[in-house]
Please model this.
Amino acid sequence: MSGAALGLEIVFVFFLALFLLHRYGDFKKQHRLVIIATLLAWYLCFLIVFILPLDVSTTIYNRCKLAVNSSPAESNGSYVILAPSKQKCFKPWSYIPDGIMPIFWRVVYWTSQFLTWILLPFMQSYARSGGFSITGKIKTALIENAIYYGTYLLIFGAFLIYVAVNPNFNLQWNQLQTIGIAAANTWGLFLLVLLLGYGLVEIPRSHWNGAKRGYLLMKTYFKAAKLMTEKADAEENLEDIMEEVRKVSESIKYNHPLRKCVDTILKKCPTEYQERMGRNMDDYEDFDERQNSYPSEKSLAKLHKQVIYSVQRYRRTQVQWQILLEQAFYLEDVAKNESSATRQFVHTFHSQEPENKIIQYFYTPTVEWYWECLLRPWFYRVLAVVLATFSVIVVWSECTFFSTKPVLSLFAVFIQLAEKTYNYIYIEMACFLTIFFLSICVYSTVFRIRVFNYYYLASHHQTDAYSLLFSGMLFCRLTPPLCLNFLGLTHMDATISHKNTQPTAYTSIMGSMRVLSFIADGFYIYYPMLVVILCIATYFSLGTRCLNLLGFQQFMGDSEMTSDLIDEGKELIRREKRKRQRQEEGENRRREWKERYGNRDDSTRNRAVHTDQKESSFSETNANRPLSKYTRSNGRTERDRIELLQDAEPLDFNADAVNDDPLESDSGR
Model:
């Protein structure tokens, strides 16, 4: 089993990152480089979270092995060997051989840092650029990132000057590397505490509110009103942009040098607008630079950028509106079925997507009723209590993890108790649950936050390239300080425990933070305590109230604006529901008509086809017979035809049918 656990987790994490990226990104429409860069960033960050518990168990085993093979007073280099344990050291099932983890962490860490500080910011500017050539996009990206990279160089230069001026330090490559890591982790820890303080309170509260049917339905109505406003704004913005595109397309003819740029812009427009503009594109007139004023390539690049943004926003709001409608209809069905006497879940509308037969077999209407109306609220309440307990433990440990005598951090107490008995499975499970809960609190906040319309992770393949790359940047910057914070909570970091024991492979890659004492002994220890203030602010919804005062509508139960938006959203949902019902009634009537008269129409159609076939076969038979002009039968047939033609019916002189006006008779004929 040596290294097998590492290989299994590497494969599992890859498919996990691929699944999440497929949910938010669009593999068919977005550029392959954007998909690959985002997938790599997410994959490396998730990999660090899943592999770190294996590093902890391997480190504990190595400490035990050194303690057994050495005397209590013996020292091994910079490490003081612990007293031998009475219990024999057993190799963990997930043991990773020596030398693998340092190389693994070095590759993963520096690759993620290269992505977050150099490649992904450049790709962000490249993706948002409206240039028509690769060279133009690269030039725009370099100009936009000049200030970005200059700020980083300024911060690194400040740390470098501090170390150079201090006579206690000698500038070496390892120390410079540590300064760079400390600068990156400081920035990441600053953002980490903000996101963690929000997630520790909001995640348990959202699950507790998830058990309230009325709460979820009112919040869905509120979202519907806000989304309709955004949807109308997106449609209006798209109409304005398409009008500008139409004017540019009509002014720049086919033989103009910038016509290729206009064609590129037209390809990014929706299909209905392309067809509408294509009707007026039959003009091949020559352009005259003296008489007409044409837009420049720079203005076309700006228009191209606006088209990409407006089309993406329009499509996202359309998809989100349909998803929100389905959610509102389902919540209304749940509210109706709660008082059902048959205890079978009845849907108002049938699902538009085909359901899996296996799910239909097990998830019957009766099972669905018991889950949605009876079990699910209690499950969410129990889950909310468990998550709230974890949040309290995290807050307590963040405020007391610097205390080593006595050990007050509960996570450190759990790990040390398991370390005494060398229960590696318990150690790995405790470490995994701890870091997994911290990651959920931080990463879920990244998925929830929205910075106007510039950064927004929308599910169902509606996230744009800029937001995907920005999320990859945030993950790569937040994960290393998150892991260091986890090692500090469990006292596996020598900087926190103040013990000269063998460090984990991850800590050895990070280097000793004692090079910058004011960061190691000050910022890293006392700044996480601010999570208490952030949790209190989140609990009382201070941020939501501030945004509401600034004019950004937020869901608040005691606000008149919220009540008005709920009523508006309820009316919108009722209107869409009536529209959906009329559509289904029309489809049902057409289906019933087809079932009732479809067989008769088919029999009539088959009879007509059969008659045509008989006539055609009869004509073919007559055509194939030999012609004999001078036979008696042929002459008799010809005489019969002449008699039939001469047998004309007499005219019926009806007064109503007679028309003296020749013009009307011609028109009637």
